[in-house]
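hey so u asked for the seq, here:
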Amino acid sequence: MTESGSDRQGASAEVGIGIIGAGHFGAVHAEALREVAGARLTAVCRNDADAVAAFAARHGGTPHTDWAALLGDPSVDVVVIATPHDMHREIAVAALGAGKHVLLEKPVAATLPDCDAIVAAADRAAGLLTIGHVTRYFLPMQAVHAFLRSGRIGRPVAGTSAFVKLWMEENRRPWHLSRASGGGMLMTAGIHAVDRLVHLMGGEVASVGAMLGAAFHDQDADDTAFLNLRFADGRMGQVTSIGYRDGAVTSALQIMCEGGTLALGRDGRLRVGQAGTWSDLPCGDEPDPMLGALRRQWRAFLDAVAAGGPPPVSARYGRHMVAIIDAAARADAARREIAIQPPEGTAP
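ran it, structure tokens below
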């Protein structure tokens, strides 16, 4: 495909991919794309000329140091945006305006006004925008979702979701430590725990109670957060997000349903509890779960592009994730439960 994104038809044509943010996670996307049929990495962008040249030499694609130049590249049909969170609005709005399809890494943006601007741009664009909430594409999560949809243990009533990990990883940058740039453990990684719970519960959150702080590190943004979520229909959930100084990863999930409980551990073990007994459920395994999840995410998005929509994960859903985190920060400051801020232009 070489035409503008709004003119593309046909699932069999090769799709040109451009990566804006050719850094740590941009490289993971590049590796995943090697195994996605019909997709080809054609352009990459980073503001460091030497670094982007090295990235292109390893993964392919024409190197750019200016993301606007990449958007003008006719070989690019779909853009991945994997930049710092506070850069998302400008680049995403421009990419959609340029007729590109966009896979925007979570979170949608650093602030709700920026999220609303991106939602508005997606509404008027010919191209599709999806949000990279990759959690739902991991095999165990897909098994949980399928089991819940089967109705074998009834409707989800309450749930807990935790993501506890090392915060100061080698890819951590100064902007990750600042609230102003959309950093913090909750926005950067804990958002996965929020997404898992909301996605599986299948409803919108109405209000949030929370405690946030930097318990382990000297930084402006949080590294520790505990959230209580009240869904619009009265159901409840809890989210734990901790970026420790030293420890071991925990990624636990429990969904309590009308007729049983589902539990998913960090080891990928999925169990169902009924009548006082736990039983194992099959949930699949693969050598590199992140690469596998990204490939499934890409296939889902490219299928949606070929079909003309809808996107697998909408900008509005992604905006809801940021609204939950925004409400959590305000709830912590006020020491009380806070209602979710509705999208711009809608009534509370």
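Residues 136-280+322-339 form a domain with the Dihydrodipicolinate Reductase; domain 2 fold (CATH 3.30.360.10). The CA atoms of residues 78 and 199 lie 25 Å apart.
lmk if thats what u needed
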